[in-house]
Amino acid sequence: MKSFQLAYLNLTRRPVPSCLAIAAIAISVACAGMLLRLNNLAESRFSTLGKGGDAIIGAKSGGTDILLGALHAEGEYPGYLPLKLFESLRQEQTVRFEDGAQIKPSVIKSVIPFLYFAKWGDVRVVATDESFVSRPRAEDNPKLKEGRWATGINEAVVGYLLAQKHGLKVGDQFDGKLWLGPKVFASSSVKLKVVGVFDSTHSTWDRLVFTDLSTAQNAMKILNMTEASIWGPGVLNYFLVYLNPQGFDSLANLVNNRTVGQAVDVPVEIKKLNELVGAGQELGIFVTILILVLGGLSMAAMLITRFEAMSLQLAVLRAMGYRKSSIGGWLLWEGFLLGLAAVFFGLVMDVAGFPALRLMLGTSLPGPDIVASSIFESAPVWVTAIVATTASVFVPLYRVYHQDVHFSLRN
Q1: Looking at residue 410, what is its pLDDT?
Q2: Is the distance from CB of 188 to CB of 123 less than 8 angstroms?
Q3: 266 within domain boundaries
Q4: Are 195 and 101 found together in one domain?
Q5: Between residues 293 and 278, the one the model is more confident about
Q6: What's the chain's average pLDDT?
């Protein structure tokens, strides 16, 4: 009888121990595989930030909140900034303050308006202007796949992924519900007509709708904006700012100290986010390795106990004429088959459980429409599990090669 047949028969004739061993390894494989995939997603958590220039000005809050609200379209509805401040910065006019101070900004290359004012389902609608697609750095400009930029009232340009998901094309129309502050005004809507579709930017812009600022201002007139803002409809959420070299300190002194806004340095905030992700990733990798090590040690202990209990059976086979190489092959095949079966069931649990786990974590991970997660990302875990399970038979294998057959049979 060949080594493979011996391994197969021994596994099938001992179904309960075999199933327990497979289940233990399969759970370890599934947990480690899902953790590894979550690590990969966490690493790409902020890789889809939209291009926002050198600085962002938002209502006073944390720098991370401003960055993610403007460039990642997440979080609660942001605070308001007066449109007059934006116009002064854009025109490089002298900004006058109530205490009599006057400052003329000279560090700004370009400033882009940014206002959330409606939702189409869960999709945010952004009001901006043509400066959004005409920036000082050409590589930051979103390119149009078809159509043109929205210049008229109620015209819209949709992101690439949004167009792909809903089959939107130039000429289509849809209704957006006004979203200004903490709630969506279900009874107030704006009918938008698609006049353009962006090409893929591999960023948050791919899942948003963009309109001209005049569309938002026209829509806001039907609401009593004085309840939400002291500036009425003349508001924005963010200014995306391109600066001259070494210009951030001057902008921050102007905005942070003398206005209701807060300027954040985009590269600095992105660096902070990456540091946070890096720390979390290292912890995730450590936990993944720990799970694999614990699973491997448990499996090794189980196999050692299993084969120790079979010492008399092995001695009988040796006495019948089976060579050490045949019995060694049997043990290796049994370890390999256990690992292979466990990986299969672990893979099934990974496929079934990962979508629910990803949904549970919500916006802490990029959505499936932005960053896909393939089951094959868990392949290193599968290979490690099979190798570890096969290698765990070397201890009993050593005992087999040094077994005193006559002593075992006599006892």
Answers
A1: 64
A2: no
A3: no
A4: yes
A5: 293
A6: 81
- Total domains in the chain come to 2
Q: How many CB atoms lie within 10 A of CB 105?
A: 21
How is residue 61 annotated by DSSP? S
- Domain range for 110 is 61-259
pLDDT tens for 34-48 read 888 887 777 676 778
Residue with structure tokens 């599934």? 30
DSSP codes of every residue in 116-148 = EEEEETTEEEEEE-GGGGS-SSGGGSPPEEEE-
Tokens standing for residue 172: 């289509």
One domain for residues 127 and 223: yes
What angle separates helix 266-308 from helix 311-319, to the nearest 10 degrees? 60
- Kindly state the tokens that stand for 348: 């099934």
For the record, the structure tokens of 206 come out as 């791919």
pLDDT tier at 369, thresholds 50, 70, 90:
low
297 assigned to some structural domain: yes
Residues with Cβ within 8 Å of 80's Cβ and at least 6 positions away in sequence, in order, are: 59, 228, 229, 231, 235, 236, 237
11 and 151 co-located in one domain: no
Let me know whether 246 and 112 are in one domain.
yes
Which tens digits make up the pLDDT trace of 125-166?
999 999 999 999 999 999 999 999 999 999 999 999 999 989
Specify the 3-state DSSP secondary structure of 233: coil
* Predicted confidence (pLDDT) at residue 226 exceeds the cutoff of 60: no
Regarding whether 255 and 282 lie in a shared domain, the answer is: no
Residue with tokens 């353009």: 196
Furthest-apart CA atoms within the chain: distance in Å? 106
Question: Count of alpha carbons within 13 Å of 53, Cβ hemisphere only?
Answer: 29
